[in-house]
Design a protein that fits this description.
Low-confidence stretches: none
Helix content: over 70%
Shape: extended
Structural class: mainly alpha
Number of strands: 0
Number of helices: 7
Radius of gyration: 20 Å
């Protein structure tokens, strides 16, 4: 099948769903903001209702949000939220939990090692690697700046 670049571009344009930049931006902002509000509410609850230290409350909030993101992914709810919110669900910590759990669920039939273990970080792996390298580079730059 030989098609020109113009024909291919036309096929892609017709196949892609139409989206509104304003609507997509507002839904991403609203859902991302709601996730952040839930995080702040959790922190406040841990600090004031459970009398936790703020440092411990923030740590527990992160753990709770990762758990909620993974649990909602397991229930296939997170994907529905992400379809509506788009980038609003990718940026927060819950998006990272979704990126780790989704491939694990998809490949669980391949077994614990080759399915869950190998595929769990297929999407999140590069994020972890580049995040680690960036933080190491940042630390090295900071150390060099302190020497001079």
């Amino acid at each position: 099948m030989n098609i020109s670049a113009e024909e291919y571009s036309s096929m892609i344009k017709n196949a892609c769903p139409k989206s509104s930049l304003v609507k997509d931006s507002l839904s991403a902002f609203a859902v991302g903001g709601l996730i952040c509000i839930v995080g702040q509410a959790l922190t406040d609850t841990y600090v004031y209702a459970l009398s936790m230290d703020i440092k411990d409350a923030r740590c527990l909030t992160s753990i709770t949000l990762v758990f909620l993101g993974a649990f909602l992914t397991l229930l296939s709810v997170y994907d529905k939220i992400a379809k509506f919110a788009g980038a609003g669900t990718i940026v927060p910590i819950t998006g990272f939990a979704n990126a780790v759990v989704s491939p694990a669920i998809e490949f669980r039939s391949e077994g614990l090692v080759m399915g869950l273990g190998a595929k769990m970080f297929i999407i999140a792996g590069p994020v972890i690697v580049y995040g680690t390298l960036a933080s190491a580079a940042y630390g090295l730059i900071l150390c060099l700046l302190k020497l001079f």
